[in-house]
C-alpha cells in the first residue's frame, strides 16, 4: 500500500503523561482512505488531524452506517512500541461491516495502516507506567442521500490519543446494576458488531446505573431478560465454584479481543471455561451461597475491571468482600505484563510496529 | 425565537418537477441551532445549505447519538403551502431524544423552525401532482470525545429537498419478504425511535429481500420471531375478515404519523382496528383461506403502499390478486386529498405555513 504523507506545519505540544485521561488529546496525524463503488479503496494517506467536511445530508448523520474498533500501542521498558493482536480488530471490523452492509477494509491494509500511523506518531506513545496510545480505526458512509440504502462512498480513518493509566490509584472493584428493562442486543440484531447504534442505545442504561450509585450496567439477554451478557462496554466473566463462566459468542455479545485472550490464558492455567448462558438468578444465588468467588469485566480500555457488587432489583450481592480477587489480579498482571513487554509473550500476541 | 438569516450569494437552479426522484436535490437553505450544556439551545439561524465541519473524534461518527424526523410540505391547487401534523414529528423527536439521552428540541420551536425554513424555501415547494417538499429535521452530537457518554454539545438542523410523486405510474402493489433471521427491534431497545442505529441495522434485511426478488422486508418481533411488526421503514396494516390489524405501539414499532392518521380515519369510517400482535402464521393462513382481503404499508414517503404478495419461508400468499384493494385506494385518495388540500381537512391536521 502506497501511503501519501502530508506534513503538518507545526506539531502540537505533547501533554503531561501523568495527566492524560482518556481521549482528551488527539495526536498530530490521522490515517485516511476512501472507498467508492467504482474504485474500491483509494488514496491512502497520513495527514494532519483536522476537521472533516460533511454534507448535512451525509448518510452517517441520519442512518448511522458506521463501525469502529479500539486498540492500543504500548511502549515497553526497552523503548520498543508494540500492538496487541491487531489482526483481531481488523477481522472484527470486517464482520461488523458485513452486518452493516459496508465494504470490508482488508486485514493486511488495516494492520499496515495502524502500524504506519503509530510509526509517524511514535513520540506520542507515552512511557509512564500504565499509559498507552489508544488507537481508533473507524469507518463511515460519506454519501449524501436521504434514502435508506447501502451507501456508495465510505471513509476509513484511524485517529489516536495518548491515554493514562486506567487505574491511577490501583484497581478498584466497581458496583454493577443488573438492568432488567432496557436491552442492549438481541439475536438477529447488531449486538456482535462495533457499530455506532449499539453504543447510542446503551447510554440510557449507563445513566440509569449511575443514578442508582453504580458504575456500570450489566445487560441481560433481550429474549428472556434472564441471561447475563455484557457489562457496560466490556465482556464479563465469573468464577463460580472454581470454574469460569462467560456469555457465548452467538450474535448478541461483542467478541472481545481481551475476552478471547483471557479465555486462552485461563485454559492454559487449567481452568474450565464455560462459554454458556448464566441466568442472573443463578448468579445472585451463587453470590449468596458463597460460590461466586470473583467477577470481572474484560475490555481494551481497562483490560480487567473487577466487580465488587451486583445490584439486581431488590437484591444485592457482594463479590469477594468488595476486594479484587486473586485470579482477577493475576490475570491483570499477566496480560498487562505481556502488553507492556514485561512478561514473555509465549502466545505471539504482540506485534512490533517496526516488524 | 429570533432566527438569524444568512443570504446565499447565488440561488441554485430549480430542477425539473417531472424528474425530482427522492433526495436528489437539496434546497438553498437549512435551519441550524446549537445546544450546549451551559447555554441550552442557541443561535437559531437559516443559512445556505453547505457542508459542515466535524472533528474526526465527533461522537456521532463513533457512537451514533443521532435522531431524525421526516415530514413534507404540500402545495395546494390554490398555491397555499401546508404541513401535515408537524407537532406529531416534534413530539416523536422528543421521545427519540429521551431514549438516546439527547436534549429535547421544544415542540413550538420545532414547528416554527420548519415553518420559517419552508417560507424561505417556498419556491422550492413543487406544484406538479403528487410532488412535495420533503423536510428532514435531525439532531446529532457534535462533541469530540472517544468515551461513550451523553454528549455535551448537539446540533439541530433542518434540510429540505423537493420530491417526486412516489407512484409515478399509479400505485403498484409490492412483494414482501417476511424476515425470520434478522431482527429490527426488541422491547427495551430503540425500535420506537427514529435513531440512526435502527436504520443502519435494517439495511441487510432490505438487501436480502431484494436478492429474493422482493421490494421490502417484513420484520417479525425479536423475542418470539412470530408477530408481525413493520415493513421496511413503514408501519403495516392488514384487512382480515373485514377488520383491520396492526402492531401495537409498545416499544418496538415506530409510532408513525401516517399510521395514527389512518387509524383515526378507519375508526371514523366504522372499521374495527385491532392494535394487536398478529402472528405471521395467522397472516399466512388468512392469505390461504381468503380472509386476508388487503394489506398496506403506511409512511410519510409513500403514504400508503399496497402489498401484493408475502413470502415467508417456503410459503407464498397473494393479496387481492396482486391488485390494490378498494379500502387501500380509498384511504390513499382521502389522506393525500387532505394533504394536498383537495379534500376538506375535518381533523385540523394541516397547518398553513403562514398561519
Automatic annotation (TrEMBL), chains A, B:
Pfam families assigned: Aminotran_4
Class in the EC hierarchy, top level: transferase
- GO BP, one annotated term: branched-chain amino acid biosynthetic process
Q: Which CDD domains does this one have?
A: BCAT_beta_family (cd01557)
Record carries keyword Amino-acid biosynthesis: yes
Q: Which residues carry this modification: N6-(pyridoxal phosphate)lysine?
A: 194
Q: Which InterPro entries match?
A: Aminotrans_IV (IPR001544), Aminotransferase-like (IPR036038), B_amino_transII (IPR005786), BCAT-like_C (IPR043132), BCAT-like_N (IPR043131), BCAT_family (IPR033939)
Q: Which GO MF terms does the UniProt record name?
A: branched-chain-amino-acid transaminase activity
EC number of this enzyme: 2.6.1.42
The pathway noted for it is: Amino-acid biosynthesis; L-leucine biosynthesis; L-leucine from 3-methyl-2-oxobutanoate: step 4/4; Amino-acid biosynthesis; L-isoleucine biosynthesis; L-isoleucine from 2-oxobutanoate: step 4/4; Amino-acid biosynthesis; L-valine biosynthesis; L-valine from pyruvate: step 4/4
Q: Does the keyword rRNA-binding apply?
A: no
Q: What cofactors are annotated for this protein?
A: pyridoxal 5'-phosphate
Domain of life assignment: Bacteria
Which reaction does this chain catalyze?
L-leucine + 2-oxoglutarate = 4-methyl-2-oxopentanoate + L-glutamate; L-valine + 2-oxoglutarate = 3-methyl-2-oxobutanoate + L-glutamate; L-isoleucine + 2-oxoglutarate = (S)-3-methyl-2-oxopentanoate + L-glutamate
Alphabetic keyword roster: Amino-acid biosynthesis, Aminotransferase, Branched-chain amino acid biosynthesis, Pyridoxal phosphate, Transferase
The UniProt similarity line reads: Belongs to the class-IV pyridoxal-phosphate-dependent aminotransferase family.
Matching PANTHER family: BRANCHED-CHAIN-AMINO-ACID AMINOTRANSFERASE, SUBGROUP IIII AMINOTRANSFERASE
This protein is called branched-chain-amino-acid transaminase
User: Which organism is the protein's source?
Assistant: Roseburia zhanii
Q: What is the organism lineage in this UniProt record?
A: Bacteria, Bacillati, Bacillota, Clostridia, Lachnospirales
Amino acid at each position: 500500500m502506497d501511503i501519501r504523507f502530508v506534513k503538518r506545519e507545526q506539531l502540537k505540544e505533547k501533554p503531561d503523561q501523568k495527566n492524560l485521561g482518556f481521549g482528551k488529546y488527539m495526536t498530530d496525524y490521522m490515517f485516511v482512505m476512501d472507498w467508492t463503488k467504482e474504485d474500491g479503496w483509494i488514496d491512502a494517506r497520513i495527514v494532519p488531524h483536522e476537521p472533516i467536511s460533511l454534507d448535512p445530508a451525509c448518510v452517517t448523520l441520519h442512518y448511522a452506517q458506521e463501525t469502529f474498533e479500539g486498540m492500543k500501542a504500548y511502549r515497553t521498558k526497552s523503548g520498543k512500541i508494540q500492538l496487541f493482536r491487531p489482526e483481531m480488530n481488523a477481522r472484527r471490523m470486517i464482520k461488523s461491516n458485513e452486518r452493516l452492509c459496508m465494504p470490508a477494509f482488508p486485514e493486511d491494509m488495516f494492520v499496515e495502516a495502524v502500524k504506519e500511523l503509530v510509526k509517524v506518531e511514535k513520540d506520542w506513545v507515552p512511557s509512564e507506567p500504565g499509559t498507552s496510545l489508544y488507537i481508533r480505526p473507524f469507518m463511515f458512509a460519506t454519501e449524501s442521500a436521504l434514502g435508506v440504502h447501502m451507501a456508495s462512498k465510505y471513509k476509513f480513518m484511524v485517529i489516536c490519543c495518548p491515554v493514562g493509566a486506567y487505574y491511577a490509584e490501583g484497581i478498584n472493584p466497581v458496583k454493577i446494576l443488573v438492568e432488567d428493562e432496557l436491552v442492549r442486543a438481541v439475536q438477529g440484531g447488531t449486538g456482535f458488531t462495533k457499530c455506532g447504534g449499539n453504543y447510542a442505545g446503551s447510554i440510557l442504561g449507563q445513566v440509569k446505573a449511575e443514578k442508582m450509585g453504580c458504575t456500570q450496567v450489566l445487560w441481560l439477554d433481550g429474549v428472556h431478560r434472564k441471561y447475563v451478557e455484557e457489562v457496560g462496554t466490556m465482556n464479563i466473566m465469573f468464577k463460580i465454584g472454581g470454574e469460569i463462566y462467560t456469555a457465548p459468542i452467538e450474535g448478541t455479545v461483542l467478541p472481545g479481543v481481551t475476552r478471547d485472550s483471557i479465555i486462552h490464558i485461563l485454559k492454559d492455567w487449567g481452568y474450565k471455561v464455560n462459554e454458556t448462558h448464566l441466568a442472573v438468578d443463578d448468579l445472585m444465588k451463587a453470590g449468596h451461597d458463597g460460590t461466586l468467588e470473583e467477577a470481572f469485566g474484560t475490555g481494551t480500555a481497562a483490560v480487567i475491571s473487577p466487580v465488587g457488587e451486583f445490584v439486581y432489583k431488590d437484591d444485592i450481592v457482594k463479590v469477594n468482600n468488595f476486594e479484587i480477587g486473586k485470579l482477577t489480579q493475576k490475570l491483570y498482571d499477566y496480560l498487562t505484563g505481556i502488553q507492556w513487554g514485561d512478561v514473555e509473550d509465549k502466545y505471539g500476541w504482540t506485534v512490533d510496529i517496526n516488524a
